[in-house]
Amino acid sequence: MLKNCKETMTFAYIRVSTQVQTSEGQRYEIEKWCRRRNMHVDRWVEEKISGLSGLNKRTLGKTLRRMRKGDVLICTELSRLGRNMMMVMSILNQCSQRGISVYSIKDHFELSDSINSKIIAFSFSLAAEIERNLISQRTREALAAKKEAGVRLGRPKGKSKQQKDFEQMLPELRKARAEGASFKLLAEKAGIHRNTLYRYLKATKEGEQNEKP
Q: Is CATH 3.40.50.1390 correct for 10-131?
């Protein structure tokens, strides 16, 4: 039978991800589980947030930072801790390294100071590291494929002052072009090469399709 020590605390964690969901069901399951084991919850932690949110943005993250060796964390199921396996494994590994016990009711999962728990924690740690490496590798491969395909990587550059000035002149240039002005004359007025002006107007469907500058 599990018993709380005076110097340790038991935390019960409840998370719902939508405004429609309520926390009563999770609270009931935890209270019933604790009664059967003669345990007392010292602090209830509830939040309404997606499990995909980063741990540092969640109340759970703040709670884990406050917890000490020997403390206990109870939840109804591991999916309450996170919505993907990597996040759950990372949290469990952190708890194992810091000596925090974790109990997941519906999963019948226990992470404590036992040998079995340590083996499980090591497996989680190894799996999390492998997953991080795979994600990093997939990212590098995707970037390499885009680069090979000619896709320009990085943040798009902002418009220069010259480009902004040119775009302000476009209505006037289009009107003059419609009245018969040559690309050469308009390009000189805009301060750009006539081929550049022609390509730009053609790309914006303002230039004649079959006419050359």
A: yes
